[in-house]
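User: tokens in, sequence out, please.
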């Protein structure tokens, strides 16, 4: 993982003139704001004299303009950290001479002659002052608090990859476990694919896998949920389920502790209900599940489908970014959307977003209850599925293109605006899968070896999409009617480099290790097919199958008279 970190740092050159960047920070925490800090990181290959440099506060709504000057003679070695913050912050090097302000603000770093090196701004949707000229991208849209859960189980605003600065705060930073004075990647401990059926002990949580704002996702029994105190059916996976909300109210967020990346598959069962007649007319609730992005600490909702006008707790500082499924629910509506939140919430009141699909109206007795939702994001391609078979590319299928190609994280949020919390239906999931999203492909490689009638060929019947029960491998150019038989060799994993087959013609090279040999018989036209149903299992994502056809030809004057097709590499995906 550290090797990946250093490689990424080398590939993405820092935009700071010196290579010294703001790498991590916390401007607000849940108690007395005694864990504020700014971490500097030298991503260059040279030692940098940062003595006399300044951290300057940029106020978004007043005129404080505090500044802190770094001690003269401070030298920052390549790959070195310098932590400026409260004395209670681990690994602090220098005490910050002012408090970073809560609310719409920012901080930027200048060298000793006033050249801006880097800057980060937050809660941009609440700024009333002029937008700073040094702003990188859209900044952060929402309120991100460092929540003190004890020890190092806390979160901060962290660069997804240490030192990588594309001049876009929304892309470069995410919410992650705090790691002042050390690499941010050391807090990203959850490996992909992440698979959780939530069938552990009741009350167990996912704090080992997710950092969170107020309450970690936790396990509950659908036959008698604790909060809300209701009973729901078991999911198609069975067993316990996971709840992702703060029962005391006020919103909640969970962020996966995975290493930053761009392409994701998120799939899960989610429990959906139609409009809630027990809500007041201005009550509402919202959940969001997103990839390639982050959220604020409270899961504040953006004005999707006119939601701000329907509920009384209108917010102007949502922090959602990336690509996400969103559900809005009121007394009159329950709607599901596929949304592109872009690389930041933007400086417009209500945020910036693009609805890619929806609304899908959730109606009682029609499409409510447990439903599979899936989100596959690869490059500029977005595929969303609602309903259908878990692990398969079916159900209601939505496709779109996106310009949001940031490398970032995964989040689940819930926010309510209700008079009576007993009426809530929070985000409830089961069988959560988070991993890579790979496009299903197949391609030929190597060379074939002829029989007396020509060289056999091999091809996939279609793209090898997980869940396709009709998938097959087809061979053609075989001796018509069988002579006396043909076959298809199958192997999982890597292709062979082309190994000569003893006793066969010199041109016969083996590309598939003969782990499985299936005998097939050619038709009168010289064609044969081997059915290979692909089960709907997301864990098969990115698995590789190598195939090669052979044909027995007794007219060849060899001990092993066979012809071979080229190799076929099949990558399972969507």
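Assistant: Sequence out:
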């Amino acid at each position: 993982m550290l090797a990946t970190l250093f490689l990424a740092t080398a590939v993405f050159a820092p935009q700071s003139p010196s290579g010294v960047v703001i790498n991590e920070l916390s401007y607000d925490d849940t108690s007395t704001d005694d864990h504020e800090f700014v971490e500097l990181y030298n991503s260059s290959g040279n030692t940098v004299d940062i003595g006399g440099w300044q951290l300057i506060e940029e106020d978004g709504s007043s005129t404080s303009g505090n500044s802190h000057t770094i001690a003269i003679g401070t030298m920052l070695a390549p790959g070195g950290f310098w932590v400026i913050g409260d004395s209670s912050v681990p690994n602090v090097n220098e005490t910050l001479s002012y408090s970073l302000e809560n609310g719409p603000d920012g901080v930027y770093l200048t060298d000793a002659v006033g050249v801006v090196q880097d800057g980060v701004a937050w809660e941009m949707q609440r700024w009333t002052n002029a937008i700073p000229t040094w702003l990188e991208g859209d900044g952060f849209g929402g309120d991100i608090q460092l929540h003190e859960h004890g020890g190092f189980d806390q979160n901060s605003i962290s660069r997804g990859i240490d030192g990588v600065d594309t001049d876009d705060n929304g892309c470069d930073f995410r919410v992650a476990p705090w790691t002042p004075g050390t690499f941010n990647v050391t807090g990203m401990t959850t490996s992909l694919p992440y698979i959780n059926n939530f069938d552990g002990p009741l009350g167990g949580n996912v704090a080992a896998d997710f950092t969170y704002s107020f309450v970690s996702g936790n396990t509950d029994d659908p036959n008698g949920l604790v909060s809300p105190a209701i009973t729901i059916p078991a999911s198609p996976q069975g067993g316990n389920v996971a709840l992702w909300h703060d029962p005391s109210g006020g919103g909640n967020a969970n962020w996966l502790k995975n290493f930053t990346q761009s392409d994701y598959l998120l799939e899960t069962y989610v429990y959906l209900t139609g409009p809630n007649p027990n809500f007041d007319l201005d009550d509402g609730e919202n959940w969001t599940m997103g990839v390639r992005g982050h959220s604020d600490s409270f899961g504040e909702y953006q004005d999707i489908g006119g939601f701000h006008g329907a509920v009384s707790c209108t917010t102007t500082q949502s922090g959602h970014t990336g690509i996400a499924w969103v559900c809005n629910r009121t007394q009159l509506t329950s709607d599901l959307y596929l949304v592109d939140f872009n690389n930041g919430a933007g400086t417009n009141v209500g945020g910036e977003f693009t609805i890619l699909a929806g609304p899908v109206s959730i109606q009682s007795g029609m499409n409510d209850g447990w439903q599979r939702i899936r989100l596959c994001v690869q490059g500029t391609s977005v595929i969303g599925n609602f309903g259908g078979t878990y692990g398969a590319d079916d159900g209601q299928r939505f496709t779109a293109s996106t310009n949001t190609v940031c490398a970032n994280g995964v989040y689940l949020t819930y926010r309510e605006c209700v008079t009576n919390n007993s009426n809530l239906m929070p985000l409830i999931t089961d069988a959560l899968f988070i991993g890579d999203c790979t496009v299903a492909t197949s391609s030929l490689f190597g060379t074939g070896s002829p029989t007396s009638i020509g060289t056999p060929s091999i091809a996939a019947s279609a793209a090898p999409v997980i869940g396709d029960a009709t998938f097959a491998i087809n061979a053609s150019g075989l001796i018509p009617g069988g002579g006396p038989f043909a076959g298809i060799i199958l192997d999982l994993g890597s292709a062979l480099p082309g190994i000569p087959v003893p006793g066969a013609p010199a041109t016969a090279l083996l590309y598939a290790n003969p782990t499985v040999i299936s005998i097939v018989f050619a038709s009168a036209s010289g064609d044969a097919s081997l059915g290979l149903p692909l089960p709907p299992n997301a864990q098969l994502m990115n698995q590789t199958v190598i195939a090669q056809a052979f044909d027995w030809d007794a007219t060849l004057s060899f001990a092993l008279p066979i012809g071979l097709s080229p190799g076929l590499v099949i990558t399972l995906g969507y």
